[in-house]
Every structure is written in structure tokens, then in C-alpha cells.
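quick one: guanosine-5'-triphosphate bound model?
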Amino acid sequence: MDTLLKNIEQICRQHKFHSLEEHIQSLKQFLGHKQIDLVILGQFKAGKSSFINSFLGRDLVPTGVIPVTSVITRLQQAETEKLLVYFRDKETVEEKLSNINDYVSEEKNPENEKNVSLVEIRSPLLNQFNGLCFVDTPGLGSAFRHNSITTNKWIPEAGVAFITISAERPLGENEIELIKNISKSTPEVIILLTKTDLFDKEEIHQIKSFITKRLIQTFNSELRIFEYSSVSNTDSYKTMIIHEIIEPLILKFKDEREKIIKHKVISLAGKCLSYLEIAFRASLKSDKEKDYLCKTIFGEKANNEFIRQELNLISDNSKSKTRDIVYGLLSKYEHVITEDLQIAFKEEYNDWDGNLYAVSRKYEEWLKLSLSGILKEAVAKENSNFTEIVGKVYAHFSFFTRSFRDKLSGNIFKVLGIRLASEEWEPDVKTLEGPDVSVYRAFDTPIDLLWFLFPMFVFKNVFRNYLLRQIPREVNKNIYRLTSAINKTINDEISKGNTQTMNYLLDETKTVENLLSSQQSKSADIEKSRIELAGMITNIGKHPDCKS
Ligand SMILES: Nc1nc2c(ncn2[C@@H]2O[C@H](COP(=O)(O)OP(=O)(O)OP(=O)(O)O)[C@@H](O)[C@H]2O)c(=O)[nH]1
Ligand SMILES: [Mg+2]
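yep, here:
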């Protein structure tokens, strides 16, 4: 496999297939892991985390009735139990296992605001599985798009994929898409029909037949389906899975790992091969014909200018709406914040001694502290909605990317009779950071500097009423400022997504341009690489893109 990967790398370098670089790097990273990851995927609330807990016989990962898992959690064997939390932006931390909720649950780490990249549970409970790891993933399809993005990005790491399907919602379009996608990364996709306790035997039989029928209709092949319930009959379901999946994997660990690696390398080789075929056919054309090819392939809707304009359109259109959405989310707190602060102020003010200058400073300090605390709480409550604004725009970028590639691939097919190998891509979504909250001076005109003119024993009530009246203005002003700050953070993130998408597509068009400009003098070289690679693939097995 190493030789094949080196060969692919060398071919990509020689023929400038830039867009396969990321795929090669992620595969190399995968080769560094010595375990096999059993990745539990599926819609939110399908029972993924419950399956892991009940299968391992202990409540290790959090579960619940609303979307829970927000971070990839990997469970692997170890002599002693520990929890490791890996962050995107800081050093890894070792934590008590009992604190796991603080990092992986949507409630304690909403929208993964702590920027955790992975949580690893190391436990002797996993020792019985000899090198097999379980990976719990955030559910797909919930209102939280960032959860789906996190999981989609992890898909290339899967060794064996368990697609959990709740018996309550048997197999929708989302699962079909997921199976299509994951099949490119792993040879072993297994359906886990969860919550079987909710139906009787006959009904479960009907649900399984329905799933099998749909899979055959779509993929022309069946997948193994295992029943599971963490509520009743659990031991017998567990025994079945251990017997049919786990034991064979452990018994032939080395072979199974090779099989997974082979599948991934062949998937990459398939992409490389499709590029070589395009390059070869293009190289046989005359310069005039090449000109025509380029014009047809990069017609009106597949050139760099078109990409730039369309992405900017998506960005600008979304950015122009951000401020109103953010203000809508924050302004609903204005009334209640104002009232709460006014009540609190009335209590505090009586205890403030000193001249007007000292009282004004106290007021500013108090207001800053109280208001920033309350606004921070409001921002924390709304943070998932703010991140979601970015998530929705990224979904547009990823949709545009897919349509663009389909268009490009269709054009190539029209003129050369070959399609680009398919690929899923989306920009990386990051958790937004809450902005600073600040408060103006209590007096815009510095009358407090004239404190000696206003003895407090006479004016205390006048200033009390004055300061009380300032509160609504301060709340309103700070909500506006906060809106501006969050608007900027969100729009900066949208711009970053735009740049990432642009770079990805420019790489892709550059690669195709290189392919199309292949010179006749290179035909023999390209053909040699193509025949060698095709030969290696045939020797090893059919590549997955050929299956569907
Ligand atoms: N009746 C029944 N309920 C189950 C079963 N497994 C899970 N549940 C319930 O389904 C809900 C969701 O379970 P989780 O394990 O948190 O689901 P999940 O797929 O991990 O959810 P996310 O992390 O949000 O994607 C919880 O209320 C569980 O109690 C089962 O086998 N039978
Ligand atoms: Mg979960």
C-alpha cells in the first residue's frame, strides 16, 4: 500500500494535480494511527452515545433527549482511566472523566465554544477490544449545522462505520447520502437499527425489509443490519455484534487494517486515475482543439471570474442581513435587562458615599460590571444562533462547490467522455468568540468634574434620578455596539469561508487547466503513469468509485 501511495504522490507532483494534496496528507495521517476506529454515525438522537455506553457497560459519554454530543469523542484502551481534551488553539489538558460533559455536551460546551478538536477517553474497559476504538460523533441533521460539519470532516478517519438508524425514523435521504459518502472512506459500512424496543418483532422485521429494499434500490447491494436496544434485550444484541463484527475484527486485526487502508488508498488512486485519463485524452488533441476544449469546459459558468462573482454574491447577500438578524436576537433582551438594572441600581445607590465625582465613577464601574455580565449571558445564550448564521452561509458555499464541480465534470464529460471523481468539501466552521462589552462615562459633559458645586446631601436624589434615566440609554447603546461587534465577527468568518471556498475551487480549476494543457509530447509519460496506476489498482482490487 505504501508503494501505491508513494506512486500516487509522485504522479500528483509530476502532473501538478494540486487538488489531491489535501487528500494525500489526510491519508498519510491516517496511516500513522495503529488502531481501527469504529465510528458511530447517524442523525441526531439516533442513540449513538447510548449505544456506546450500553455496549461498554458504563455511562462514559453523555446522552439526552435534545441534541447532546457536540465534539468527536474517541474511546480507546489504556492501563488506567483518563480523559484527554485536545484543543484547536491551546495545549492538551488531562481532566477527570466525570467532567466530560464540560467538553462534549451541547449544553456545557454549546457550539463547541471551547474550541475542542477531540476528546479522548482512555479506559481499561476498552482493553477487551484489543486495538479497536469507538468514536462517538455529533449527530447529523439537527438544527446545529456545526455538528454536521464536525462529523463530516471526521468521515475520512473512519475504519468501520456504524450508521445508526432509529427504528422510529427508518432510513431517509440523509442516511443515503451519508452511506454514499462514507463508502468512499471505508470498506465496512454497517447499519445499526437502534431503539428496537419501541416496536414489536413483526414491526422490526418490516422496518428491516424496508431498509434493505431501499439500499438495494439505491446501491444495488445490501448492507449488514444489526438490531440494538439499550433498554431491553441488550445482552443478546450485544452478543450478536461481538460475535459477528468485533471478534472477526480482532482476530484478523492486521488484515482488516490493511483492508481499510487499501480501500482508502484505492479511493485516492481512483481520483488520480480520472485526472490522468483526462490529461491523456487532452494531450492527444491539437492546440486548436485544446483551445476549443478549454472554452467549452470553462464556459460561462465554470471560470474563475464566475466563481469569484458567485461567491461574493453569496457572501455579500448574507453579510447584508447579519446585522438585522443579530440585532433581532439581542434586542429581545433590552427591556428585561433595563428593568433588572434599574431595580438593582435603586438598591445599590443608597450605599454610595462621597462627592459627585466619586459617585459617578462608582456608577460607571457598577454599570460596566453589571451590564457586561448580563450581556455576556445573553451572548452565551445566543451564541449557537450566531454560529448558525455562519453555518448556513457555509452550507451555501458547499452547495455552490458541489454544483460547480458537477458542472465542470459534466462539461469535461461532454468533450472528453470522462467525469471528474466526485468529492465532498466544505469550509471549516469555527466557534465565534464573544466580543467585549464596554460602557461610556456616566456624564458625556464632564459636570462631575464640577463636583464641588453640587453638595451630595442636597443633590443626592437629583443625581439618583438622573443616573436611573441613563440606564435605558446605556443598555440600548451597548446592545447596538454589541450588535456591531458580533456583526463584524460573523462577517469576518463569512469572508474567511469565502476565501477558503475560492482557494479550493481555484485549485480545482488550476488542476483541470493543467490537465487540459497537457502537451502531445507528454502523452507517452501520462499514458505510462495511467497504465501503471490502473495496473496497480487492478492488482489490488476495484476502486470504490467504480462500485456505485
Ligand atoms: N427507547 C429507547 N430509547 C433510547 C435508546 N437509545 C437511546 N435512547 C434515547 O434516545 C435519546 C437520544 O439518545 P442519545 O444516545 O443521546 O442519542 P445520540 O444519537 O447520541 O444524540 P446526539 O448526540 O444528540 O446526536 C435519549 O433520550 C435516549 O434515552 C433505546 O435503545 N431505546
Ligand atoms: Mg450523542
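The longest strand covers residues 116-123.
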